[in-house]
Amino acid sequence: MKKLIIEVRMNETARKDANPNVPYTPDEIVADAIACAEAGAAIVHFHGRDAAGNETSDPEVYRQIVSGIREKSDVLIHPTLGQFFGGAGPDERMAHIKALAEMGLAPDMAPLDTGSNNIDMFDWQAGEFVGDGAVYVNTGANLRYMAGRMREWGIRPQLCSWSIPNLRLAGAFLAAGLVPAPAFVTLVLSGERGIMGHPATEAGLRAYLDNMPDEAMEWSVLCGGREIFDLLPMILREGGHVSAGLGDTTYASLGQPTNADVVRAIAAMAREHGREVATPEEARMMLGKQLQPA
Ligand code: ZN
Questions:
Q1: Which member of 46, 78, 121, 232 has the lowest number of beta carbons within 10 Å of its beta carbon?
Q2: Global pTM?
Q3: CATH assignment at residue 207
């Protein structure tokens, strides 16, 4: 059976108050990334943070992280684009990625969320919205432009779908030759409060799988705001991959785990279900020739 690519979503917007093992500083992110790679992660995804934990797109922060990881590991590196609520243009959103490419530190992947989405949170017990929500804008023109820049820099887009229309746009990108085959798509499921993705149920995932626009797609599942464990048997059975970590939720069922603990638990369950875990080198092969080792 196809090997399982484990991507660890290290921090996103999670805070240390919820789990002190959420990494903030470049040193913490590098150490955590290495530990996750040793535990079975083939891809590390992170958001640059300052010491107080606030998100930053400072190229120097990203330089320290990418160079620190590359010194010790061949794990695939996938930083965020960030800045998505500020009305930032595509060049601004990719400024730190461009800076990395110019330093000879182009990451292996960068995300392209293939569509604009409302980001609304709802408390079902209280029957109330949490906050005012936001709109995450990704116009088709900006996405095409960003895909072009990534191709120039030798970076593979990770196409993130929050819904079937987003997945259809990912299929169109593949058909138009804007991204290389096989496309690597992440299917977003979201927990109870985050009502912007498909529900984190087998039916929510099944809807994506019944609507895959192209066979030349490797797909991974992301479960925002919720642990991924109860969906793992289906993901493993259907030949998908996994993108999970403390950036999604505290993973309290494991106590107060590190990201590496989460990766280890996923890897163990995969082996129980007959899926071996892909090394970074194997993940590069599965995702296509464009992903050469750095
Ligand atoms: Zn992210």
A1: 121
A2: 0.96
A3: 3.20.20.70
